[in-house]
């Protein structure tokens, strides 16, 4: 099991998105810490929060719940959440669960 790593690229300006690079597994063991870190990132995000999923190797239901929860919190703060560069397995998971329609993705 690999823990999820989070690396924000820094504070975004009013027109620049905040980008967070995730890597590893998003699962029951890592979801709590990921949720806390993303909530902290939302404190300084303006406009758009981009989650780079290119190095996420696995995601389970608790990981999906974190993404949905962060999207709801972001929306309440006027921030748009966008997922970018998901691997084929992640794309398939989002489509099968129907979350591909509600979580915006850029490839």
Please describe what this structure looks like.
With 107 residues, this protein is an alpha/beta fold. It has a single domain (5-106), classed as 2-Layer Sandwich (Transcription Regulator spoIIAA), CATH 3.30.750. Helix content is 36%, strand content 30%. It is built from 3 helices and 5 strands. The chain has helices at 31-42, 61-76, 88-97; strands at 5-8, 18-26, 48-59, 80-84, 105-106. It has a 5-stranded mixed β-sheet with strand order 1-2-3-4-5, with helices on both faces. α3 (88-97) links the parallel β4 (80-84) and β5. α1 (31-42) runs parallel beside α2 (61-76). The chain starts with a strand and ends with a strand.
In the sheet with the most strands, the strands line up as: 1-2-3-4-5
Overall shape: globular
CATH architecture: 2-Layer Sandwich
By CATH, the superfamily comes out as: STAS domain
Number of individual domains: 1
Backbone structural class: alpha/beta
CATH topology: Transcription Regulator spoIIAA
Q: Please give the CATH class.
A: Alpha Beta
The tally of strands reads: 5
Describe the sheet with the most strands: 5 strands, mixed
Order of helices and strands: EEHEHEHE
Which parts are unreliable, with pLDDT below 50 for 5 consecutive residues or more? none
